Amino acid sequence: MTQTCFYQTLAATVTGITLSGLGVLNIAPAQAATFRLSWTGQVLGYQAEGLFSYNETQVDESGIVRRDDLESFNIAFYDPEENLIQEFIDNHLTYSGFNFNFDTQTGKILQEGFSDEPNGIDIGEYNPIFEEEENRVAARFDEEGNLVSANGLNFWSAAPAPEGTAIPHVHLTDFGNDFPDLPIGFGRHLDVAFFTRTTAQLLNDPTAGDEFGQRMIATKVPEADSIFGLGIVSLIWYFTRKKTVN
Q1: Residue 174 lies in a domain
Q2: Domain of residue 101, residue span
């Protein structure tokens, strides 16, 4: 099956399910560019899959697509056994701290800065519990370096520079311990990805491997088959695991 046929099959399947009453399906307009999101954690292999779209005619001269430019943004997170943890539909509309920046010229998602910066990322959900901690939304830490009291499943970036050189990385964090049975990969995080550290360096274990942490990546979806709807992220996760033949 070709990639185009794969997405046509996905479209037909989702349409059939929608007609059965499982949700409302929105088809992205012709001028919308649609991209698939994917990420795999460096330590335990947690994964993220999703879709986002934007109007190509509305991108400004910078070539950067930001929150207000998005038409849709759906993301789902999976445990190391590929079981769905949680999905977020139209996350750019439902999460006040949402931060996402996509460079249309390079095709890359910007994620090497802190979570609230123009080159950072902050998706999913993050809610500080105490009012006095709301000013720590970006940092996520208190003065002692501990994670602040909060809840939400959150994918976020940071770039501390303890010795003058930034160490960019992303985390998948269950801040409220809403999923206590999930394994912890690094510190208090379900998983992480350090872009400039190998797994062996990160874990101080020479047998852990010499791979660097993976950035979240974007892959363009054929325009004719750009589809969004309730539950679409989970369906894409299922179908992308089907063997395809070019």
Answers
A1: yes
A2: 33-221
Quote the pTM value.
0.78
**230 within 8 A of 22, measured Cβ to Cβ:** yes
Q: Is residue 239 part of a domain?
A: no
Residue 141 falls within a domain, yes or no? yes
Is 153 within the bounds of a domain? yes
Contact predicate 193/186, CB 8 Å = no
In terms of residues, how long is the chain?
246
d(CA 171, CA 122): 10
Q: Residue 246 contacts by C-beta under 8 Å, 6 or more apart in sequence?
A: 2, 3
Q: What pLDDT sits at residue 74?
A: 97
DSSP letter for each residue of 94-134: H-TT-B--EETTTTEE--SS-TTSTT--EEE--EESSGGGG
Q: Strands, E, within the chain: which ranges?
A: 25-27, 32-40, 47-55, 64-65, 70-78, 84-88, 102-103, 108-109, 122-124, 127-128, 150-151, 153-158, 169-174, 191-194, 217-220, 227-229
Which candidate, 100, 98, 158, places its Cα nearest to that of 124?
A: 98
The DSSP symbol for 178 reads S
**Residue appearing with tokens 């902050």:** 122
- The per-residue pLDDT for range 17-55, each reduced to its tens digit, is 333 333 334 444 557 899 999 999 999 999 999 999 999
Q: How many of the other CB atoms lie within 10 Å of CB of 135?
A: 10
